[in-house]
């Protein structure tokens, strides 16, 4: 009986750390479901203590999950994660495409125009900042 209680306790702790890690990465349950090709209901059940298949943990590790922390409560030593430098994880791209496809053609064109404008503004801002840095280096300070 003592072993059963301990096992249940461990499973609940792992489930809680799984949720903590998901939130640390800024992922919704739906995002995790997309990564693992399961339903959101499966992710909810994992966070409620239903055992998670190992191959899903392996998939999540490829997307930055600190699986060592989830399983052992010990964080990765250097604080980095395998895909910490991934600029745009695939599950986000899939979600964007899904949302974009749900728009009508006019809305799609407006969204693309707004995105292009935002990129132009970002590039101009970057250039202005570079020029300001150059000017501040060349102007002698009193």
Explained architecture:
There is one protein chain. It contains 7 helices and no strands. The protein is an all-alpha fold and 142 residues long. It is 70% helix and 0% strand. The protein is flat.
Summarize this structure as a short list of keywords or feature phrases.
flat; 142 residues; mainly alpha
What can be said about this structure in brief?
The protein is mainly alpha-helical and 142 residues long. The chain is 70% helix and 0% strand. It has helices spanning 2-24, 29-36, 40-47, 54-61, 67-72, 90-102, 105-138.
SS content category: mainly alpha
Rg result: 22 Å
Q: How would you state the average pLDDT, rounded? A: 80
Order of helices and strands: HHHHHHH
Major sheet size, sense and barrel closure: none
Give the terminus-to-terminus CA distance. Answer: 79 Å
Shape: flat
Determine the number of helices (DSSP H or I, runs of at least 4 residues). Answer: 7
Helix content: over 70%
State the low-pLDDT regions, or none. 82-88
Count of extended strands? 0
Strand content: under 5%
């Amino acid at each position: 009986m003592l072993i059963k209680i301990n096992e249940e306790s461990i499973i609940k702790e792992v489930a809680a750390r799984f949720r903590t890690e998901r939130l640390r990465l800024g992922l919704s349950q739906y995002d995790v479901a997309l990564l693992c090709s399961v339903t959101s209901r499966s992710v909810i059940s994992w966070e409620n203590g239903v055992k998670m298949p190992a191959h899903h943990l392996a998939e999540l590790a490829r997307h930055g999950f600190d699986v060592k922390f989830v399983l052992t409560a010990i964080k990765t030593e250097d604080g980095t994660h395998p895909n910490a430098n991934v600029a745009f994880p695939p599950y986000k791209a899939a979600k964007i495409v899904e949302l974009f496809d749900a728009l009508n053609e006019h809305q799609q064109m407006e969204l693309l125009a707004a995105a292009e404008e935002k990129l132009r503004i970002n590039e101009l801002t970057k250039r202005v900042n570079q020029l300001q840095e150059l000017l501040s280096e060349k102007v002698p300070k009193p």
